[in-house]
Amino acid sequence: xxxxxxxxxxxxxxxxxxxxxxxxxxxxxxxxxxxxxxxxxxxxxxxxxxxxxxxxxxxxxxxxxxxxxxxxxxxxxxxxxxxxxxxxxxxxxxxxxxxxxxxxxxxxxxxxxxxxxxxxxxxxxxxxxxxxxxxxxxx
Amino acid sequence: xxxxxxxxxxxxxxxxxxxxxxxxxxxxxxxxxxxxxxxxxxxxxxxxxxxxxxxxxxxxxxxxxxxxxxxxxxxxxxxxxxxxxxxxxxxxxxxxxxxxxxxxxxxxxxxxxxxxxxxxxxxxxxxxxxxxxxxxxxxxxxxxxxxxxxxxxxxxxxxxxxxxxxxxxxxxxxxxxxxxxxxxxxxxxxxxxxxxxxxxxxxxxxxxxxxxxxxxxxxxxxxxxxxxxxxxxxxxxxxxxxxxxxxxxxxxxxxxxxxxxxxxxxxxxxxxxxxxxxxxxxxxxxxxxxxxxxxxxxxxxxxxxxxxxxxxxxxxxxxxxxxxxxxxxxxxxxxxxxxxxxxxxxxxxxxxxxxxxxx
Lengths: 139, 359
Prior knowledge:
The structure holds two protein chains of two kinds.
Chain A: E1 18-20, H1 23-35, E2 39-47, E3 51-60, E4 64-73, E5 77-79, H2 89-98, E6 102-104
Parallel strand pairs in A: 1-4, 5-6
Antiparallel strand pairs in A: 2-3, 3-4
Chain B: E1 4-9, E2 21-27, E3 30-37, H1 45-51, H2 57-62, H3 69-84, H4 90-118, H5 122-143, E4 152-153, E5 156-157, H6 163-189, H7 191-197, H8 205-210, H9 216-219, H10 250-273, E6 289-298, E7 301-310, E8 315-321, H11 323-334, H12 343-349, H13 354-358
Antiparallel strand pairs in B: 1-2, 2-3, 4-5, 6-7, 7-8
Helix pairs in contact in B: 3-4, 4-5, 4-10, 4-12, 5-6, 6-10
């Protein structure tokens, strides 16, 4: 990609196909990927201040990568895709804990205790700090 | 009446080089459920990468994992080179393959030793680690250090390998191959080893894909995927066919890694034979801007870096997805139904790297 063609500020992935989806369609889009036998690679959360940009990466064979991009307001709920891809539980817990993304209905939910203790700063990766530390998970 | 018990496996356990805890729910001696707990070695590397200069991050990401430090640096540099429009000289691309494959060899040797140790085969453990020392010596000769070799830089590689060291590398690999043949023969054919590994921790292909398995764990379940197929570095010329087994058990995972060792030996030899005579680096100009994904194949599987840059010296975001992070969910699937005595072998079979996982 040339300098002229490149977006002035980080905007889109420059090498892999990325399809924007709205929150309401996320689970259906993930299910469609599962039906096509695509492998869930991971998700990436970017804190854009007012919103979160969340990419979901899926591998189609060893070479091709397909991405879904969901943009949500900070406080909005993000449905878990663990119904289609159970393997997403770890990265969804990570986004919830480190960024403060309000991911709901995760199949295995650590309630903010994947990496951190109750003494840690809430959401250390978030650029805007809000809310208190998550409650201690009852086990 | 069967009794249910919950026992903690780890975070400190003889077979675990690094801390992870699995809460095992047992019905008598059979595992019914396994719940992983991590967080013991989380270092905040991704956050640190936002605060450091993008050139300093090369040294930071190398320290995510001591076993495959070079490949972390390669993945990061490759992403930045894409953002900055840099064309890496072909000699540098070939040198990257040589060091990457040597890292794969030493990582697999390390794992084969630990794996033998997990089922109590001490002498086999020592044999594999003795071979591994030969590889560590190659790193010391060619790059100046044994673990964090810091040979990769943005735009190429930091140092060349002399003809003399290339020849010495070939000689060492010949000696290593002879020793490896004997050790791997034991690993694949010994009665007790097979008894402990065949049919244990089975992961079918459909589950491997749905649970997002990576690397040898994925390929041992019959899924033909290897990030080297994307042709990064010089793999576009040095073609790689994924090593695949179909049984999906612990034995198949060991077999994949043993076959990958032979493949790496072949790749290093081919890369040395075809090493082009060009510069080894280009000087980066400007600053990175945009978002990109960089993928490479680590010894443990596919490594993905997501980079978001904004034209300044510091990155907006660096996301690192390591293969063990992907293989935790498949591990949770493998354990239910196994005997508690097989848990260490099954856990080791994914080649867990917890420092990578937590970053």
